[in-house]
Amino acid sequence: MKKRLALVGAHPDDCDILGSGLAMRYRELDWDVMFVSMANGDCGHHEMPRQELAARRKRETEAVADMLGIEYVVLDTSDCEVFPTLEQRWTLLRVLRRFEPDLVVTHHATDYHPDHRYTSQLVGDVSYLLKVPHCCPDVPALRKDTVHAFFHAWRDTARPDSFCVAIDIDDLWQRKVEVIAKHESQMFEWLPWVDGQDMSQIPPPEDAEGRLRYVDERRGPRAERIADLYRDRLCELYGPTRGRQIRKAEAYVTAPFPTSLSEENYRELFPFFGG
Asked: How far apart are CA 200 and CA 243, in angstroms?
């Protein structure tokens, strides 16, 4: 039976960086995928005016949506203003109900960024309400359980002591690099600047191959670190021979919401392992 995946991030590149490998696996099965950004990305630059930046970042998400064949929803909340208000709760509830996901993945509750942590809380706040008809009665309540999970926390250097699933993205890595590179305002302007890099060393727009190499060099080590952190789980899921060979991975961790990723439900939602 076809499944539907919703990734909920705080900003217009979060889902792409953290979970586009899983999205591609779903699309390989012709399953539906939606990315949600709780904020419009209007603070993620050191030079561009906020309104102009938000419009640019929306175009970047549209390029990703076209590339992956997914739906990409960007909500009109400013960066640094994601907060578990009733207004933002009901907005997210309506978005998720309309999509009817089987699996929702969001930021880890302990993530370093406040927008990420509050996005995680908002997903938790609506997790039970998805099935409550009198909440937002203008959109029909779901009549099924929706499983919830966290991305691996961005700066965690240890594997969490809870149920998890790790997936091989070696064969998807180059395409994931291309997805991430669609966020030009972030990968080649804002993030290098805020990280204190020498901006003269960033490949220019006309050097498309150089830009892809730059993203690979910047993002590849994290995917390799996740593979190493979850090596024993990769060996369990793919078998010891292949599990030891996987270089790049994404990881998904159980979330403390009403229906969470578990031993009982993960194979229906991650049918990539065989056996």
From this structure: 40
pLDDT tens, residue by residue, 178-234 = 999 999 999 999 999 999 999 999 999 999 999 999 999 999 999 999 999 999 999
Residues sharing a CB contact under 8 Å with residue 1, sequence separation 6 or more, in sequence order: none
Number of compact structural domains in the chain = 1
DSSP classification of residue 136: S
Q: What is the dihedral of CA 30, 60, 16, 34, to 10 degrees?
A: -40
Residue 21: CATH number of its domain: 3.40.50.10320
d(Cα 261, Cα 164) in Å, to the nearest integer?
Answer: 8
Distance in angstroms (rounded) separating the CA atoms of residues 244 and 231: 7
What is the rounded radius of gyration, in angstroms, for the C-alpha atoms of the chain? 18
Backbone angles phi, psi at 156, to 5 degrees: -70, 135
